[in-house]
Amino acid sequence: MSDGKTGSAKVEPLRKPRPCPECSRPSTRESYPFCSERCRNVDLSRWLSGSYAIPVVEDETKAGGEDER
Ligand SMILES: [Zn+2]
């Protein structure tokens, strides 16, 4: 499928550079919003190791909900 656009291979970044959440360096487009693949992995592994604790609802067995009459 072709758009009919005649080739401009020039892509300019529309987003403002943001500091990397890990090391506060300017982010790159490849690894946005991080400065590098490495910082992205650091952030990811932090997620996986549970530093960002997500509260788990344990009461799902009790989903009967309508106890009030
Ligand atoms: Zn970084």
TrEMBL record:
Cross-referenced NCBIfam families: PRK01343.1
InterPro entries: DNA_gyrase_inhibitor_YacG, Znf_NHR/GATA
Subunit structure: Interacts with GyrB.
Binding site for Zn(2+): 20, 23, 35, 39
Name the UniProt record assigns to this protein: DNA gyrase inhibitor YacG
Family: Belongs to the DNA gyrase inhibitor YacG family.
This protein's UniProt keywords: Metal-binding, Zinc
Cofactor note: Binds 1 zinc ion.
Names of required cofactors: Zn(2+)
Disordered: annotated segments: 1-31
GO function terms (MF aspect): DNA topoisomerase type II (double strand cut, ATP-hydrolyzing) inhibitor activity; zinc ion binding
GO biological process, one term: regulation of DNA-templated transcription
Function: Inhibits all the catalytic activities of DNA gyrase by preventing its interaction with DNA. Acts by binding directly to the C-terminal domain of GyrB, which probably disrupts DNA binding by the gyrase.
Organism: Gellertiella hungarica
